[in-house]
């Protein structure tokens, strides 16, 4: 049986090449000129949530 991807999670998170789950931090849509680069980068998800997210994104 084919698994379904949780679309809301797929829009907010992605898997890196090495298998880490990355999330997009908030506040990246506008007023980016005065924000620091670390604020604008993708951040790794906590270890507690990685197992749950990988179930929601089976084909990524």
Entry keywords:
60 residues, alpha+beta, Factor Xa Inhibitor, 3-stranded antiparallel sheet, 3 helices, elongated
Word description of this protein:
The longest helix is centred in the C-terminal third of the chain and has 10 residues. The protein contains 3 helices and 3 strands; from the N terminus they run H-E-E-H-E-H. The chain has a 3-stranded antiparallel β-sheet with strand order 1-2-3. The protein is elongated. The protein is an alpha+beta fold and 60 residues long. The protein has one domain: Factor Xa Inhibitor (Irregular).
- Quote the beta fraction: 5-15%
**What is the correct CATH architecture?**
Irregular
Total of helices: 3
CATH class equals: Few Secondary Structures
Low-pLDDT regions: none
Task: Summarize the helix and strand pattern as letters.
Answer: HEEHEH
> What's the β-strand tally?
3
| Overall mean confidence score, pLDDT | 81
Instruction: Assign the structural class, choosing from mainly alpha, mainly beta, alpha/beta, alpha+beta, or little secondary structure.
Output: alpha+beta
Distance between the termini: 17 Å
Number of domains: 1
> CATH fold name, please?
Factor Xa Inhibitor
Gross geometry: elongated
The percent of residues in helical segments reads 25-40%
Adjacency order of strands in the biggest sheet: 1-2-3
For the CA atoms, what is the radius of gyration? 13 Å
Largest sheet: 3 strands, antiparallel
């Amino acid at each position: 049986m084919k698994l379904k991807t949780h679309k809301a999670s797929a829009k907010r998170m992605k898997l890196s090449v090495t298998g880490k789950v990355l999330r997009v931090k908030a506040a990246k849509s506008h007023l980016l000129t005065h924000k620091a680069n670390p604020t604008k980068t993708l951040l790794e998800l906590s270890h507690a949530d990685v197992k749950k997210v990988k179930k929601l994104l089976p084909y990524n």
